[in-house]
Amino acid sequence: MDVTYYPGCSLESSARDYDESTRAVCASLDIHLHELPDWTCCGATSAHSLDEELAVTLPALNLSGAERLGNHMVVPCPLCFNRLKRAQEEVKSSLRIYDLASFIGQAEWLEKIRSRLKFPLDAIRAVCYYGCMANRPPKVTGSVDYENPCDMDNICEALGVDVRPWSYKTDCCGASFSVSRKDIMYNLVKKLYDKALEAEAECIVVSCQMCQANLDLYQKDISIHFKGNYNIPIFYFTELIGLALGLKGTTTWLKRHMVDPIPFLEKKELLRQ
């Protein structure tokens, strides 16, 4: 299947592991990604608070380019997805835009994942954390289960993961407060750690690079701040798919994490590269 791919800015820099694992996983599932030519920044979290016209114009430029290609568009970054969907409403674009987790969470790809599974991840207990941008507001995103999204849950279950139920799937991680108000972000993320552990999860699975950064990058600092000792691996769902399908490059992606997941996976006898 041919789809247009909009990576967004951070997937070319701080979230290269997400981009590389996305491309590898899609290739393995026969999803042919065609990167949008000459794509521009979507405006992310800042444009709409500074200039209303710019907040629509930036993503609208990308929508126009994608429409010319004629494919559905897949977006791994929930922030980009949200901005593109908001602009689509303004400019009345008919393009079909998918958040990556929602796209791969469709029955067709779940079945393909199950049929190509090499190394089931049944030794892992995890919670899936969606953050607040991929599903809200539902009038913009089109999400039906915006309070209890299940796409990543279904993907992880197809991989054999023991997905633990919890009520914090869509709580905010603090997003860019990591720059201006770390105290707020620390408290929000600490709650996510605590609730994940309360659900007996050993790791947290995400689909957003901002969420991944806040939960992974600051884990040591949050431990020190609250006099704790958190050591919770934070995985992109695409990395777990790569691991379960035995794809090359998995170790390279995982080694970029601040909370090293390698010892955890070695203990589970799941690291084969």
Explain this structure to me?
With 273 residues, this protein is an alpha/beta fold. The chain folds into two domains: 2-104, Rossmann fold, CATH 3.40.50; 118-267, Rossmann fold. Helix content is 48%, strand content 10%. The protein has 15 helices and eight strands. Helix 1 (16-28) links the parallel strand 1 and strand 2 (32-35). Helix 3 (52-69) packs across helix 4. The longest helix has 18 residues, at 52-69. It is globular.
Key terms for this structure?
Rossmann fold; 4-stranded parallel beta sheet; 48% helix; single chain; 273 residues; alpha/beta; 15 helices
* Residue runs with pLDDT of under 50 for 5 or more positions: none
H-E order:
EHEHHEHEHHEHHEHHEHHEHHH
Structure class: alpha/beta
Strand content: 5-15%
Number of helices: 15
- Tally of structural domains: 2
Overall pLDDT level = 95
Question: How many strands appear in the DSSP assignment?
Answer: 8
What coarse outline follows from CA principal-axis ratios?
A: globular
- CATH fold naming of the largest domain: Rossmann fold
**What CATH architecture of the largest domain do you see?**
3-Layer(aba) Sandwich
What value does the Rg take, in angstroms? 18 Å
The amount of helix comes to: 40-55%
Biggest sheet: strands side by side, in what order?
2-1-3-4
**Sheet having the most strands:** 4 strands, parallel
Would you summarize the structure shown here?
With 273 residues, this protein is an alpha/beta fold. Helix content is 48%, strand content 10%.
